[in-house]
Write a structure and sequence with these properties.
Layout (H helix, E strand, L loop, with lengths): L7 E6 L5 E6 L8 H7 L9 E6 L9 H7 L3 E4 L2 E4 L3
């Protein structure tokens, strides 16, 4: 486990809100969501959207690299990451 305190993520979602990409951003960013993906160095395809979200409680304390894979099992609902169902 990594003791990194970064709890903010930039995530890219598909048209259904499912996370398809993520990047650590550290403290709250002042970037608007339109420029967030570019600032984080991530590209988006048509229909995808960028969000800046808090790391879910269930993933706090997880290695920072493992978090990026784990959040692909989440979706964005009302500005927060929630586990995908199914």
């Amino acid at each position: 486990m990594n003791n990194d305190t970064s709890r903010r993520l930039a995530v890219i979602t598909d048209q259904d809100g499912n996370v398809v990409g993520a990047h650590h951003v550290g403290a709250a960013s002042s970037a608007d969501t339109a420029g967030l993906a570019e600032t984080a160095g991530m590209g988006m395809l048509p229909g995808q959207h960028a969000h800046e979200v808090d790391l879910p409680e269930a993933l706090i304390g997880t290695d920072r690299h493992e978090v990026l894979l784990a959040v692909t099992g989440y979706r964005v609902v009302a500005g927060a990451l929630v586990p995908r169902k199914g």
